[in-house]
Amino acid sequence: MYQVSYALSGNTRRKTYKTEAGAKRAILRWLQQHQSSERCRAILYSPDEAPLSFSDASELDLESTQAVNFYSSQAWLNLRRQVFERDNNRCACCGASPAHDPNTVLHVDHIKPRSSHPELALDIDNLQILCAACNLGKSNLSQRQWRE
Hints:
- This protein is of the alpha+beta class.
- It is 28% helix and 22% strand.
- It starts with a strand and ends in a 10-residue tail after the last helix.
């Protein structure tokens, strides 16, 4: 577990995160929100390293920034297009398609979630198309593969 202490103008709060990447993404967002505030600091406590202190978003390493930008990366966008083509723009669970209902919103779903299986983030066999309703109902708790 990773803990982060957020300090702003004398007030401190502490949060716990499952992964270092998740903690760093949260720190980045928090620092960006409070960039105009004086005396803001986030301290990352990890199980295996000395605490790291950040007072500006630019102090976070490139790896953290890349994790935040996963869904806008060229690799993800290319793979996403391939999955839509492979699955014919149709929900693998209920069959919904924008071709039949223009209000249908489709998502590319990670069957095994990125949060617990980051090594499968860009594996096309771990991806399926789900409509918004089916994807939100599934959340990251189910690893059911609806594709045939």
